[in-house]
Amino acid sequence: MGLMSKRDTTPKGPPDRRKVTTKGLLDMKLRGEPIAALTAYDYTMAQLLDSAGIDVILVGDSVAMVLQGRETTVAVTMEQMLYHAQLVSAGVQRALIVGDLPFMSYQVNPDEALRNAGRMVKESAVEAVKLEGGEVICETVRRIVNVGIPVMGHLGLTPQSIHRFGTYQVRATTPEEAEELRHDARALQDAGAFAIVLEKVPAAVATEIARTLEVPVIGIGAGAGCDGQILVTHDMLGLYTRFHPRFVRRYAQIAEEMTSAFRHYVSDVKGKSFPSPKESY
After folding, report:
1. Active-site option among 112, 132, 179, 199
2. pTM value?
3. Which uninterrupted H or E stretch holds 57?
4. What are the respective helix, strand and coil percentages of the chain, to the nearest 5?
5. DSSP conformational letter for 217
6. Pairing of β 128-130 and β 35-39
7. Which residues is 59 bridged to in the sheet?
8. SS3 281
């Protein structure tokens, strides 16, 4: 009687450390491998995300809300985004680093957009930039792509336009809005965008767009039919607790753990149990 085969439980070694590129993301879409993306704003977080195997790290303008305490992303400046992107790039070896171009850094005209995209790549060592908007910004996307800077698009809920919409409600819920979203997604692809983020749109619409486009579609609140997923890291860790969107899965409750640790420290200091003789010189 032959030996029965057993499932190999031997550790497979460290994760694949090959550098993620824009072409690598396209290859992942073609072979059906979902893309895992998260945000980072500093060296320590970026290093942790990179070591965990995150494919794309977005230096998001969400820094305005989760680190600066702003109500929207509108207030963050180009200089602030450059600074945070510099911190992130110092901690990353494998992941593709994408830098958000903040509000009014690319909307004035394509020339200014190109200069700011160039600054993001040259001064902060990111490998791509992200812009919000559809057909209206396609001329700008072409201009940036034509000089060799990869562009990631962003459609659906576009936080930089919150004052126009006045709400964070789901987008593309009507047939007209859904068709506009499809049109904008195709336009961005034709303009040279290497990937598109779809935020807070119906899953069926997002799935259709992901299947139709050749470039990867990365969802946030857009269902499981996208080619990848992205979340704000502070949301999924339970660090940012001002609100909890339906699409955010909390993988930890770090804010609670940190608060408990801080209270314990205060108690030890007040009670004179810290530092101990072993913790003193």
Report:
1. 199
2. 0.91
3. strand 56-59
4. 45, 15, 45
5. E
6. unpaired
7. 99
8. coil
If you search the block for the tokens 């767009």, which residue do you land on? 209
pLDDT in tens, 182-192: 999 999 999 99
The SS3 call for residue 47 is helix
The CB density around residue 222, as the number of other CB atoms within 10 Å, is 31
Can you give the pLDDT at residue 184?
A: 97
pLDDT, tens digit (0-9, with 9 covering 90-100), for 110-129: 999 999 999 999 999 999 99
CATH number, domain 22-254 = 3.20.20.60
Helix (H) or strand (E) holding 123: helix 110-124
Torsion of CA 58, 232, 46, 122, to 10 degrees: 20
Q: Is 199 a catalytic residue?
A: yes
Say if CB 209 and CB 171 are below 8 A apart: no
259's tokens: 């608060």
Structural domain spans, the chain: 22-254
Alpha carbons 12 and 247: distance in angstroms, whole number:
32
